[in-house]
Structures are given as C-alpha cells and as structure tokens.
Amino acid sequence: MANIITVEYGLGQNPQLMTEVSLARVEGLRENFNRPVELDRKRKPKRYHAAKGVNSATTLLSLPANAIVDEYWVTLTAARSDYAVATAICEVRESKQKPLEVILDFGKMLTINALRFSKVLTKVAAYSWLGTKFDLDNPVSVDYSAEKSDGSGKPVHTFSAELRTERLLLKLSNEIDFDELKKSLDLSLPDLPSNLSLHINGGPAVWEYPGLVQANQKKDKLDDVQWNKDGELLVSLAEPLQTLLGDASRNELVSVNLELKSQTPGEIKVIYASDSLRLLHRQSFKNDSDLRVNFNAEGQMPVSFSAPENSASRISGVQLKLAADFTEERATPALEATANGICSVVLGNGKAACVRLDAIKNLNTISAIRLPLVTTSSRIEARVMVWQGSAEGPVALIEKAESEVLSWSGGSHNREAQEHWQLFTLAKPLEIQVNEVYWMALIVERGEVSWPLASADGDVYPLRVGTPAGPWRSLPSVFAAGTSLGAVAGRLHVIGLSEQTTPLAPLQLSFAGSHHTRALNPTADGQLVFLPIEENAEVDKLKVELLIVSRAIGTLTLSEVDVITEEITA
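The structure assignment produced for this chain is given below.
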C-alpha cells in the first residue's frame, strides 16, 4: 500500500477557512534523480542498418523511459534493388558434382534475371526448382555482355529469360572456385518489395503494408498517405512506442529496436524522421507517494509541484489521480471574497445586518450559512434568519427559516482580533423557489461581533442594516460605488443541496497565475486528470502551485502525481 501524508483543513476547535492555514502549504518534492531527466539525446538514432537487396533493415533508438509520445515519425524506404548479395538473401551451397555446381536456396519464391561474378565466366547455366527436383531438361543460359555493365566493376551475366523459383541450380565453368563465387555473387531481383511489416524489439507487427510497394513517380512530397517516387513513406509510431514508455518513476534511456521486414528483398530502410515528446516527473510529498486532504469546511488548499532543477523547458502541465469522498452538500461561492481591511459592520445591542443571497441558482435548498466573524465580547449568542424580498431589500421573514442560537466564547475585546468562520445551520432546510430573492439576517442576541466586509465586485451580496425585526436600510452613501471607500459586499458561504440538472461540482482546480479553472467531481475509485498550463500563464518555469478549491466537506486524495515538461534535445 502506498504511503500517504494527510493534511487537515477546516474547522477544528476554532472554525476557520483554509485561507487561514494557507501557509501550511504542501510541497510536492520530486524523487531523487541521479542524472538529468531532460536528456541530452540527439534526434539521430544510435545506429541504423540499411542495405540493398535485403529482407529487413533495423534502427536502434534511444528514448527516455518517462516520455509521453505525442508524435514519433519514421521514414520507410522500400524500393527495387538492382542487385543483392547472394549470401544476404539465400543459402549458398556447393553441389558434389563436377564441374562446379552451386545451389541457391531462397526459402520462398523469388524472381532472378541476372548475376554478377568477380570475373567473366564462359559458361553459366541456370535451372529452376520444380518442387521436388531441378528442371534439368530446360536450362536457362546466363551470358556475359559487355554492353550491360552497370559500373560496379563486376561482369554482368544476363538470363535469357527471367526465372521465378524457390531454389536455383547454377552450373559453371572452371574459371572460378566455390569460395570466390560465394564471396562475389550478386543477384539481380526485378521484383518490388512486398508485404512489409514493422516490428519493435522483435515483437508482433505494429504496422503492415500488404502487396507490392508501388512508388508514385509523379509525387515528390514525403507524407504518410502514399509512397513517393523514391519509395518513401512516413509512418507514425507514437501509439506503439507509448506502450513501452511513460513510466514516471524511471528517468533512464530505453533502447528500442525497429525492424522493417519485406517478403521480397529490396532496398529497405527505416530511419528516424521527427518526434514530439514530453517528460513525466513523479512527485512525492515529504517522501510519501500520496497526499490526503481532509476538508472540514469549504475552502482552498494550495499544493506546490516542481520539475527537476536541470529541466530545460518549463512545466507544461500536471497529470494526477484524484479520489474523493464528499458529502452531498455544496457551498457557494466556492471561494469567499477577501476582506478589504477597511470596512466591517459591528452587530449586537439591537443592531443587525442582512445580505442578499446571490449565486444560489445552482442550489435546491439552503441548509446552512457560514460567516466570518470577529468576536469582540467574551460570550456570543447569535442566529441567522432568512427573508424573502426583492433585489432592493428584504420584505418578509420566512417562517421557520432560521437557525438555532449558536453560542461561542470570545476572549478578546480587540477589534483587530482574528476572524473565525461560524456555521449557522437552519433548523430545517429551506427549499429554494425559482425567481425568489432571498436575504439572510444576522441577529446577535448576546455580546458583540464584527463582520469584515469585502470590496464589491459589481452589484453582488449587498448589505442592509437595521434592527433584528427590521426595517432595513441601505448603508450610508459613503459606501456607494465611486466614493473613496467604494461599495462593499458581504462575505459568506451558502450551503445546501445542489440542483440536479446543473449540479455544482465539488472541486475547482486552477494554477496560480493561470486564468483557466477546471471543475471536477471525482469518485471514490479515482479519476485520472490532466491539467494543462496555457503558454501565457504567469507561472514559474520549474515550479507551479495548484489551487484546489472545495465546495464540499470530505476527503480528497492525490496520487500518481506527475509534472510534465517538454523534452528539449541537443
């Protein structure tokens, strides 16, 4: 079982939101890399073998084990070969008959129309194979012609008629011995390569091309659609190579052998063309593989991830597995506004305040309200009540839509004391009616509290003040938009069951410095998630901070966390 580090977030004995414990950030520490992960790996493969008149060609690649293969292209060449070395495509053996007789055993049907020897031979006769014996009654003469020299320096001996055979018997004059013939004999093969297949590390074919390779003599361009005039074709190996790579726990190079096979010998090559790779860097959390976050209240948890210090490129994303066990209730807004540090309302001694409940259209019910309050008395007793109203203010108190009296101790008479988020649970969940406008009133029945406010971002969460039973009036004009203090807004979380047709996801994920947010609803079984970082995001090259905002109470586990960087090659 994987090691897990657990982080507690939320209420405890002194209820508070995650913003109060954000300094306890969890650093995603990379594993101890023994060598650079951004590999000094040239695009050129280690080596490749290409030859004319062969049945196969190989290329040895060197790829990082922790690679994500977005693209990987190789160029295949399959063209007719003028001549093939006999020993490369068949078994060459000497018959016991005199003068010299040589048997060429191809193991399959091939077409031959000429031979090359190290010297001119006065007599050469060829006999095809009938399946059980050679056709000795129908020899094919093989004659030397000076006009047919191909510039190789070897005399060309041309068949009077092409032979297609599985074996070939040659009867020769005494101008050459067997050892010299075996070293020098070349065969002219007029057939095109056929029935190609591409293999990785000797495994099953990952690509096949049935039939003859027909080069398009009018096509110069190299692509993956059709063979060009040079018998070349691009082939993608991204998918089969990915099955061998993508191991974030390894940072070494992996040798990969590519082999192109052809049923018919020819000019066969497989060479590297281009690639696009990304690299995975597995994260750990204080030497533990998983991170478990216990959300005891809605709020935000920042988690930092880093790439190896020697990475040549910036972090382009993070992939991870998220498993969650959350309650069904959701909070809105997902993340509360920050107090402006200037304005707050002091409540108690007959003074009350109410705030319009905006952004609740995705809730079916209201079951609780959470408020940030600064306690300025030794003992506090307070409750909340929900009112119906209009956009301008509350009109009528909703029967039984109120909480029990919540009591807590203060201990500080300092107006600069730290705020704590208090949860007021309604005695009975309130079903939200479409098109109704709701307001929440905070009634302090004993003691005194201060409610820090936020600067308003538009007409949201406006406040009204008055007595516990009303009437309610707007704040003084000094708090209007355009004034020196500006408009203010209430800070709170409304908690309830999510609306089913457009449910609220419990999680919102984003990177600090990025403008993109991802809503997620992971299950207990886990969900694999890829979080890209846009190129214009204002993030550090080698370190990013993932902001996890939870609307729900429960447990979230992060595992298999991998930072992704682009691969830079020399």
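Interim note for the steering committee: The longest helix spans residues 178-184. Residues 11-43 have pLDDT under 50 and may be disordered.
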